[in-house]
Amino acid sequence: MVKIGALEAGGTKMVLAVYTLEGEELERLTLPTLTPQQTMPQMVDFFRAHAVDALGVGSFGPLDLDPRSPTYGAITSTPKLPWRGYPLLRELLGGRDIPAAIDTDVNAAVLAEVVRGAAQGLDSAVYVTVGTGIGGGVYVNGATVRGLMHPELGHMLVKPHPDDPNPRGVCPYHASCLEGLAAGPAIAARVGGDARELPDGHPTFDIEAYYLAQMCANLVLTLSPQRILLGGGVMQRAVLFDKVRRQTAALLNGYVNQPAITERIEDYIVPPALFPVSGLVGAYLLGLYAYQRRV
Amino acid sequence: MVKIGALEAGGTKMVLAVYTLEGEELERLTLPTLTPQQTMPQMVDFFRAHAVDALGVGSFGPLDLDPRSPTYGAITSTPKLPWRGYPLLRELLGGRDIPAAIDTDVNAAVLAEVVRGAAQGLDSAVYVTVGTGIGGGVYVNGATVRGLMHPELGHMLVKPHPDDPNPRGVCPYHASCLEGLAAGPAIAARVGGDARELPDGHPTFDIEAYYLAQMCANLVLTLSPQRILLGGGVMQRAVLFDKVRRQTAALLNGYVNQPAITERIEDYIVPPALFPVSGLVGAYLLGLYAYQRRV
What we know:
Two copies of one chain form a homodimer. Chain A is α/β, with parallel strands linked by helices. Chain A has nine helices and ten strands. In chain A, strands 3-2-1-4-5 form a five-stranded mixed beta sheet. At the A-B interface, strand 7 and helix 6 of A face strand 7 and helix 6 of B.
């Protein structure tokens, strides 16, 4: 039986799985993300023990995704210092010559959602995760977007909300970027505590929705995706969806005169269907496609 | 001899041409854009008289670009009222069954630049024209981006410059969008006259560059293109290129740690090579590809 290995490499945990060719999950292992020295041996052992025939990886980044590069599959300038410059894909393979592929965790997630999730059958989609950080994966013209590097949607520059007490945000790199104003730590800094304890009607969720709506509006204007999926811990606050939808439509103000925006935005900005395993399923698909290209 | 017809349909003029299969230009006709009743007969006659074997069109929009739509090739919600809802592609063909294709003028332009211009051989690029309006074409994963509609980069939301006397901008749809703050009319409103008479050192060009740099930074973060091409009348002020490059790098602040941005941005944000005929050459390519698909 052919077995496809999948890894979703996150900043706090590593999720490893083994799938059949058809996508049935056979095994799963979750490990905390420590240093490469501490975490890698178990991961290499897991895939070796299960004798996977191909490997797909969706990883936190930034990553070197240029197949022509000598450091293809390495993590590059991450703030997680032990992983900076780490040749993740090469070390995972441990010298085995099996088909393998890597993409960002969020690109893997959008791929999974297009193939078998909330964007199934669409030509284009964006998947954004809003949690301790903000990241986005983009699928267009039959593949995820890599380009110069890969999308880093989280750091899109946005306009501060007039009522935001901290309009610069908390990003060390950028004055008023999305992640600095709308990720979990920004919300916590704004309300001075754990936002999960606040009621749905708290004004901080209107401010939050304003930032996410700017992102959605700019995505519509630059990428024109057929659907936008919002996932991650912050989006588990369901009231945000309606607020983001309404503010996105208000910001676009009828300019993009498409029924998907003007009439049915509740079907346009939606939760992912595969959360929380979108990225893991995407990693399986990356491994599957690598396997299919080889045979 | 096979002949490919090409039309670049603009808001002020229509440029029609006939090319050989190999791309040699045989004829060109320029007409003012009046109403369909006034302008279309000459255009239909031109392509009919030259007996073109295929037709490619790059047009102002918004356009219906969904080949499955009954109104494929029509201009949709344009403010140019006589052209609103006009079935441009169908009327151009005048009942002839020849291969034909249509895309936005800026998508046609980016296609031309990728195939034989300033982005030759790259996997992804964005072409932005900054003139009386701002429009952008996007090429990624082997094709231009259409999606829900098509990119409308000009209306990306941006942060007002602190020294801008008119921070809302002049767009009737959006408070502080790019076109409302950085297109020709916005500059004229800001300086109270014709900006072409101002010296390079005038502070309005720093404000202008700040807006275009926000666009470039957000493009890097969302689309990660391998090159950004800036054309159009406003960009004929050459000093803007250095200002936009410097402010783009400053806004990204090292976060996108790619030599193309951090070391060689002068090769990353560049003028188009085919200006002012990028769109026309792109229209020829659209016609050529439609012809090649048919035979």
